[in-house]
Amino acid sequence: MSRSVLVTGGNRGIGLAIARSFASAGDAVTVTYRSGDPPEGLGSVRCDVTDGSSVEAAFEQVEKEQGPVEVLIANAGITRDTLLLRMSEQDFTDVIDTNLTGAYRVAKRALRKMLRAHSGRIVFISSVVGLLGSAGQVNYAASKAGLVGMARSLAREVGSRSITANIVAPGFVESDLTADLSAERRDQILSEIPLGRYASADEVAGVVRWVASAEAAYVTGAVIPVDGGLGMGH
């Protein structure tokens, strides 16, 4: 059965792979984007998750075009990497407001209709960095760790309505960003990953789609790593 799916930050990278994965399974999918161009072949709506009115407008459009959101993938995120002593308060608050508070905004809005339907799937895209920490990413790691507490608290609040809330925590993924790393840095990262390679965005997308599926109806409050073993034990 086709479902109404919304993927925030879905016009590139992992978000786009997730959106395409749901679409290939026959779901009606819309992605949000704040900058750049919308992807072809998918519904799209410009949305800034740091702006409550923008979030409201995006949901209203999605509900009009494909029905109430039944599956929400909270993926939108930014980085402002630098060591803490050099990190401005703006760098910190911008990352928290987008990655963590933005997820709160879209989850809260999606729950309005999910609670009435007594059904729903919410998946927050975190990161292995939120579990392990990373020098130069205090703001990013804090935002991604915060998603774990958010998802687990939400799972306890809405589980009785057959709504699940889970975390998928990717490790290093093949992307334009990792391609720009120096050979030395790439070798260092790979040496720390037991599987000895980066993930593909499609591998992350497959896990996200599974945890939002009927087969995972009894999985909630879970943190599912897709990191090649990098963060095991956390």
Automatic annotation (TrEMBL):
GO MF term set: oxidoreductase activity, acting on the CH-OH group of donors, NAD or NADP as acceptor
Domain Ketoreductase, first and last residues per copy: 3-176
SMART domains on file: PKS_KR
Transmembrane segments: none
Pfam families in alphabetical order: adh_short_C2 (PF13561)
Family: Belongs to the short-chain dehydrogenases/reductases (SDR) family.
Keywords: Oxidoreductase
Identification of the protein by name: Beta-ketoacyl-ACP reductase
InterPro entries cross-referenced by the UniProt entry: KR_dom, NAD(P)-bd_dom_sf, Sc_DH/Rdtase_CS, SDR_fam
